[in-house]
Each structure stands twice: as structure tokens, then as C-alpha cells.
Amino acid sequence: MVxxxxxxxxxxxxxSFLKATPEFYIAGSYGSAEEAIEENQFAGCQILLTDxxxxxxxxxxxxxxxxxxxxTIHCMVLTVFEDxxxxxxxxxxxxxxxxxxxxxxxxxxxxxxEVIAGGSPMSGHIAxxxxxxxxxxxxxxxxxxxxxxxxxxxLLSDGFRYKEIADKLDISAETVRTHVRNIYQKLxxxxxxxxxxxxxxx
Length: 202
Hints:
This protein has helices at residues 8-19, 33-39, 59-69, 84-93, 105-116, 124-139, 147-157, 162-169, 173-187, 192-200, and strands spanning 2-4, 28-30, 47-50, 74-79, 95-100. Helices cover 55% and strands 11% of the residues. It has a 5-stranded parallel sheet, sandwiched between helices. With 202 residues, the protein is of the alpha/beta class.
């Protein structure tokens, strides 16, 4: 296991706690992603436990880099961040576990065991957030719309502006406007609210 955490005291506490558990071997414990990458302990590593906010390369970018190098490594996040962007960007990067700092030590042990067994442990609040997001996407699905249009309508229902949607979907703001016009035409509505209400009512 490799641990990356810039809070020295917390890193030492986690490292000491896990070292005292016979079934876990700590290959390295680092204060930054750069240190971890330089030491290159990931080749035979089974678990990466990382914070998100790190000096220099953040935890999400670290996960992307390590997954590109070792696709079988299980990446877990331990952080204070519980906002949508960090949660879903971490999962998209390849994280299979997402725990909030303040979790009991026993919870961390259980989470590591669950990851090794093929599970995806998350703090309760994070798991609820993920479930709620999928519920919204399900609610926003319309057979009249393409997959991209449904995704865009979901973001509209979340209150995102055109530029924010463009950034999230990696398209231009003008393309967003074109999609919105197509959505309105297909649903025979004239506003965002009408479109959302119509799809939710289907």
C-alpha cells in the first residue's frame, strides 16, 4: 500500500495504524504526489490511499497517472471534500473508494478489506450523493432525446449555466445552445423549466 497525505501528523497516524495491522504492507508514505511518483513504489502495489488536496499534483491527477501506469491498483480517496465535482472527478479518474476524514480507524480497515474484495466503499453521505445523482439521471431520461441531450438536460436540471455545461461535456457553448434548441423542439417546449417538467412527468 502507498499512502499520500500532506498533513504530516495525519499521515503518520494512518501509517502507524496500518503498519500495526499484520495483513497490510506499507510500501511508502508520502507528503506529496511528486514524492510518491519519484519513489515509484506502484508497480506491485495493490492499494493507493490519497488525499485530494495536495501541494502540486492533486490526488485526482495522481490517481489518473498511477492508473495509467498500473491499471490493477485500487485507488481510495480519504479527504475532507464532499462536493459533487471532487467526488465524481475522483470516481471518473479511477477511484473505487471515497472516505471522508474523521472516519473511525476501523472504518478505514473495513474499507480497505472491501476494496480488496472487489467492493467500492464510501462514506454514507457520499454514497447517498452518488445514488441521488443516478436517480436524477434516471428521472431526466427521455426516449425522445439522444444520450448527449439527456445528459445535457440533466445538467440543466441541476442549475448549471451554458458555459458550465460546455466545460463539463467538453463542448462549446454554441454547441450547448444548439442541443438546447433541439431539446426544446423535440419536447415541444419553450423553456428549461418546461423541458424538465415534461421529462419528469413522462
